[in-house]
Amino acid sequence: MPGDEINTARTSPKVTLFPLIALIFYEVSGGPFGVEDSVRAGGGPLLSLLGFLIFPLIWSVPEALVTAELATSFPENGGYVVWISSAFGPFWGFQEGWWKWFSGVMDNALYPVLFLDYLKHSLPIFNGLVARIPALLGITVSLTYLNYRGLHIVGFAAVSLAVFSLCPFIVMSILSIPRLRPKQWLVVDFKKVEWRGYFNSMFWNLNYWDKASTLAGEVTNPSKTFPKALFGAVLLVVTSYLIPLLAGTGALELSSSKWTDGYFAEVGLLIGGVWLKWWIQAAAAMSNLGLFEAEMSGDAYQLLGMSEMGMLPSIFASRSKYGTPTISILCSATGVIFLSWMTFQEILEFLNFLYAIGMLLEFAAFIRLRIKKPELHRPYKVPLQTFGVTLLCLPPAILLVLVMCLASVQTFLVSGGVILLGFLLYPALVHARDRKWTKYDTEQPAATSTNEGTEDNLVVSELHQEVADEASVSLLPPAKMEDEHYELLVERVQKLE
């Protein structure tokens, strides 16, 4: 981890508003690919459509608001790991990082699988393992290399991919208008409803709003950019789900059992013809590229942030000449390869369970920081008092518990093993640090400034760094600051505001 590499990384291009919207869009959605199963599991269109109207209000909006406040309060790589460490200490910060990283790698393993699921409708060869395994490896290696080349490239690529991926659904929706029969949107057969699959599908298609916070240190002016990007991404995600579903279910009288992963290609065929089917399949391929890139970026920069805080060996913070965390990217890619053999539904349920545990801890940290650190500099603040934000977090917390309760026995066992491994890893890493078996960063790196060189931002960055308590040095004992120095910093920040 040479110093020159780190310096190069800090002067690398930052992510701006529209690339960040695209990255969040791909962290969460990537388009309507994968929502088809919500129609089948919901026993018809009605529950699926209601889900994508109601769930964003009780889940997506609260998570986005919490993310906006905390990501701007701690504009550093590592995101939620920093928040949890500041609220509950380094042990729980590490557990959060472990759960969310493992969940993210499992999520990323879905996208090569989804990509091939769309292709196999036209190329049945990908139904067999002989063609499927080399294809999965080839996709993973190629996309990993693109991620290695730079986050700003990934961001601008995500913008182009988002436009290309959504265009065929706009065309399909326009073509469907003369054939729409609104009464078909009200169809539901409760005897066919699979509640576990339905809630897992809804949850998966509307989560991961917090993921972009793990690369907050790479964003231009995060205090202003993050809230705007999250608001734009919420609107984009919800409309990209509802409009194609309204078009497909309203224009065609199809059995709900036909709506499985990849089925939008067949819907395009029935509405527009072969050309639209192929266009949707190409868009699905491009969408999965964007989903993979955005997820891997979040996972890799999370490991980098944990390394900079001293939670992981310093090798995870080493950067390439392109400013990307090489070892962290390779580690995430390896996890994807090992998990790609699982089925779509298996991966979905495992990652949802781990993600739900992590989100419960994030909501708890959000409320605790409001109580424990009322003086924390919050460039964006949810306009509610402590009681109000507690009520804001209650509905999504209930949903998280529901998703966990609906999990299978296999999911409980696998997730329990992952959690136990995290509990064992933390003391093992502490022991390795104490014995000097591995090299760790012992000091918090300088906070990333969006307008480097200005005194105002340096003061704010210094305050961010000092109020972070345990998050500042993670595995090391928390540094205490003198009251007079702290009060001076608060006073100077208030003047700046």
Automatic annotation (TrEMBL):
<dbReference type="GO" id="GO:0015293">
    <property type="term" value="F:symporter activity"/>
</dbReference>
<comment type="similarity">
    <text>Belongs to the amino acid-polyamine-organocation (APC) superfamily. Polyamine:cation symporter (PHS) (TC 2.A.3.12) family.</text>
</comment>
<keyword id="KW-0813">Transport</keyword>
<dbReference type="Pfam" id="PF13520">
    <property type="entry name" value="AA_permease_2"/>
</dbReference>
<feature type="transmembrane region" description="Helical">
    <location>
        <begin position="125"/>
        <end position="146"/>
    </location>
</feature>
<feature type="transmembrane region" description="Helical">
    <location>
        <begin position="46"/>
        <end position="66"/>
    </location>
</feature>
<feature type="transmembrane region" description="Helical">
    <location>
        <begin position="382"/>
        <end position="403"/>
    </location>
</feature>
<dbReference type="InterPro" id="IPR044566">
    <property type="entry name" value="RMV1-like"/>
</dbReference>
<feature type="transmembrane region" description="Helical">
    <location>
        <begin position="229"/>
        <end position="251"/>
    </location>
</feature>
<dbReference type="InterPro" id="IPR002293">
    <property type="entry name" value="AA/rel_permease1"/>
</dbReference>
<feature type="transmembrane region" description="Helical">
    <location>
        <begin position="409"/>
        <end position="429"/>
    </location>
</feature>
<feature type="transmembrane region" description="Helical">
    <location>
        <begin position="263"/>
        <end position="280"/>
    </location>
</feature>
<keyword id="KW-0472">Membrane</keyword>
<feature type="transmembrane region" description="Helical">
    <location>
        <begin position="325"/>
        <end position="344"/>
    </location>
</feature>
<keyword id="KW-0769">Symport</keyword>
<dbReference type="GO" id="GO:0005886">
    <property type="term" value="C:plasma membrane"/>
</dbReference>
<keyword id="KW-0812">Transmembrane</keyword>
<dbReference type="GO" id="GO:0015203">
    <property type="term" value="F:polyamine transmembrane transporter activity"/>
</dbReference>
<feature type="transmembrane region" description="Helical">
    <location>
        <begin position="153"/>
        <end position="177"/>
    </location>
</feature>
<feature type="transmembrane region" description="Helical">
    <location>
        <begin position="350"/>
        <end position="370"/>
    </location>
</feature>
<keyword id="KW-1133">Transmembrane helix</keyword>
<keyword id="KW-1003">Cell membrane</keyword>
<feature type="transmembrane region" description="Helical">
    <location>
        <begin position="78"/>
        <end position="94"/>
    </location>
</feature>
<protein>
    <recommendedName>
        <fullName>Amino acid permease/ SLC12A domain-containing protein</fullName>
    </recommendedName>
</protein>
